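Progress against Task 2.4 (sequence-to-structure conversion) is shown through the following example record, which the project officer requested during the mid-term review.
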Amino acid sequence: MPVLNESSVIKDTVERFFSDSYYSYKNNVHLIMIDDRSTDGSTDILRNLNRKFHNFHVIKRTFPAAQNGKGEALNAGIQYIKENNTWDPEKTIIGVIDADAYMTIVDINKMVNVFDQDRELAMAQSRVAMLQTNNWLETLQDYEFVVPNSLLQNMRDHLGNAAGAGNGQFFRLSDLTESTPWGNALLEDFEISTRILLKDKKTAFIPDIMVYQEPVSKIKNFIRQRARWAQGSLDCLKLLGKKTLGSNLGFAAKTEMILFMCSTFLSFIIILANVFSLISIILGLTVVNYSAPWWMISTLVLGLLLVIFSIIQYYRYINISIFQAIGSVFYFYLYMILIIPIVLIAVWNFITGHNSWDKTSHGLKESEE
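Structure tokens generated for the chain above:
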């Protein structure tokens, strides 16, 4: 669990992990926190918690190694594990969970059993949902992860290219053979799962195992977070696009992965096309004439079917009223407007070489910004 200035959430996260249920598995479960040179008091909190709990390890990083991105912090954690692990690497499972996240010890044990039942499995990704939601933006992030992201992951699992999705990734230690398994892409989760797939290793999505994370509550912070993710897909295209095309993966899996890596550029082209269309309309220039009404009818019907399906899926997985589910799906279309600044920022940062890690704020820290 990487930690950088998480004083508003880290105490609750650690205490949730070391709940009463933990002690049923305490001999086999360890929590490792990588303090990436925090300056907000997180270090003192971790020091006090370290005295309180067993099987709790804190790695304190210093400059110049510290604060060079999440991937570098995770590499430090893996190095520590390899140096101190006394178990068989084939039977040692590494989970990656963010400092704002929560995963029950029961689900952690279920994930370990998944690896135990499939000795070929190198990486597994759990389903992601929000811890709690208090406004429309938070609710829509919950909907996004529970419905569209989960459907995408299910498709990837079917194609054989299940990908990492931030929180709730698990790895078999014996398959993390490099000294630095994580790279420098701003989308480090997708990068490492792609690297594993390129080594002809197996990945999987496990939809009945959940990890809960804190949603971003402010639009400004949301745009900053998603712009980093969007730029990260371009990083992966630059680093791994050619290798993916030349890999042993199936055609469908390769196509999905390349499309995902190109998604930011494709969105950028769509935005430019829409701007051009708008300018054409304003200036009275010739635009496309939809003489066949079946295009419009088909679009409306398909859109309605998608909305109905999304409502059913969200209502099925989350304990909310059907009216809340309907509201969430319709608000999602407003939420899509935020893609415009996200894509523009991501493309600009990628072209200009701005690749610093714009970290997501959590808890009280975010509310004070």
